[in-house]
Structures are given as structure tokens and as C-alpha cells.
Amino acid sequence: MIVAAGTERVWYVLTSFNEMDAHLSGLSESKVLIKEGNYLLVEQRARVGISLLSFTFRVLMEVVEDRPFLHFRQREGSFATFRGHWKVEPTPEGKGTRIRYFLEASPVQVLGGRHFGNRLIKQNLRQLAAWIDNS
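and the corresponding C-alpha cells:
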């Protein structure tokens, strides 16, 4: 996605894990447990679904900032696989920032967990873009 904000604003938002649950409705909890240099250990929880069928996702993930990349991978949690990265770079025209997101995720839960997980990811990406540009 491309946002109007500059790269520093994007980095600020992408690494504001302690604030994410206030801005992304899909997250019920987000907190940094350890921060050492460019390494973070982050715990996040999300609850998605409909009234009788809902799922709680939890991920304890290691995050490494290596600009222009922000790498992450699950240490433990609700996923068989959860890893990827963000790539943040100015647009070629210099008017905004291009954000690329790569995610490989497979929920352990079945019975619609993947569908709700995909919906949660898309919702969070839309809200993240709005948070970045509404600074």
C-alpha cells in the first residue's frame, strides 16, 4: 500500500506495539515484553468471529528492525506458521511511502479459523493505513 505519510511516521506506527490495540479494532491486546536494541519480543491477542463462532488468536513474536525491513516471526502462539516482514521505502516520486507486507501464516485452529484470520489481517491493514495517515 502507499500512504501519504513519510517513512519516519510509518516506522513509528509499525513499531508502536504498546499502542496498537487502541488503534486496531482487531487486537484486544498488544504489548512489548522485551526491547533490546533493534530486537523486540511482542505479545498480541485478537478475538474475531461472530456471536456463536469466535476465535482467539495469540502470538508471541520476535521482531527485528533492519531498515528498510521490519522482520517478525512467531516464537509461540495460535499459528502453525506466522512469519514475515514489512518493507518501508519512499515512493519513487518522493510523495509518500510504499509499504509492502509479506506474511506466511497458518492458524492451528480449524473450523473457519483461517477465514476469520484472513478477515482480521485485512481489517488491521486498512486501519493501520488510516492510523499512519491521520497523524
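(Above: one complete record from the training split.) Helices lie at 7-14, 20-23, 113-133.
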